[in-house]
Design a protein that fits this description.
GO terms for molecular function: DNA-binding transcription factor activity, RNA polymerase II-specific; RNA polymerase II cis-regulatory region sequence-specific DNA binding. This is 8051_t:CDS:1. It holds the Pfam family Myb_DNA-bind_6. The protein is mainly alpha-helical and about 140 residues long. The protein has two domains: about 45 residues, Arc Repressor Mutant, subunit A (Orthogonal Bundle), CATH 1.10.10; about 55 residues. It contains seven helices and two strands. It has a two-stranded antiparallel sheet. The protein is elongated. The N and C termini lie far apart (about 60 Å).
Length: about 140
C-alpha cells in the first residue's frame, strides 16, 4: 500500500519508517496486527518490523485500544458504570486502576466515559467524595 504525505515540497514514502509519516489504521492493518501478534506472541518490535510505517509503540497502542479481539466495543453497561464510579472514589483519574475489575474494557474507555459525562457536576461530586474519604479539608464556598 503506497501512501505519501506532503512535507513542504517533497513527498515522504510510508515505507520510510520515519516518525514524520503518519497514516490512519485500516481494517487490513488491524488484521495484519492480529496475525503478527499471534505469530510473535506480543513482541512489539518484531510486529512493528512487519508493518511498514508503524513503530512498536503505535502497534502496542492500537492493540490495547482497538485491535484486541477480547475488547468490548459496546457501550458501557449500567453495572460497569457503577463499578467505574465506585473505583473513581478510591483511585481518581488513574484510568488503569479504574478498569481493573472490568474484563475487556480499556483505560481509554474509562477516560472517555468520564470526560463525556452529560453531567460534569456528577464528576465533581465524585471528586468531593474522594477528597473526604482521603481526609482532606474541603472548602464548600467558591471564595478563596
Amino acid at each position: 500500500m503506497a501512501c505519501t504525505v506532503k512535507k513542504s515540497l517533497k513527498s515522504v514514502d510510508v515505507h520510510d519508517k520515519s516518525p514524520r509519516c503518519r497514516r490512519r489504521w485500516s481494517a487490513k492493518d488491524d488484521d495484519l496486527l492480529r496475525f503478527y501478534y499471534n505469530k510473535y506472541k506480543g513482541s512489539w518490535s518484531r510486529i512493528a518490523k512487519e508493518l511498514p510505517g508503524r513503530d512498536n509503540r503505535a502497534c502496542y497502542n492500537r492493540w490495547i485500544n482497538h485491535a484486541n479481539p477480547k475488547l468490548k466495543k459496546a457501550p458501557l453497561e449500567k453495572w460497569e458504570i457503577d463499578v467505574l464510579k465506585e473505583n473513581y472514589k478510591y483511585y481518581g483519574n488513574q484510568w488503569n486502576l479504574l478498569i481493573k475489575d472490568l474484563e475487556g474494557r480499556t483505560p481509554l474507555q474509562a477516560k472517555n466515559y468520564f470526560y463525556g459525562m452529560k453531567k460534569p457536576s456528577e464528576l465533581i461530586l465524585l471528586d468531593f467524595i474522594q477528597a473526604i474519604d482521603q481526609g482532606k479539608n474541603v472548602n464548600l464556598s467558591n471564595s478563596e
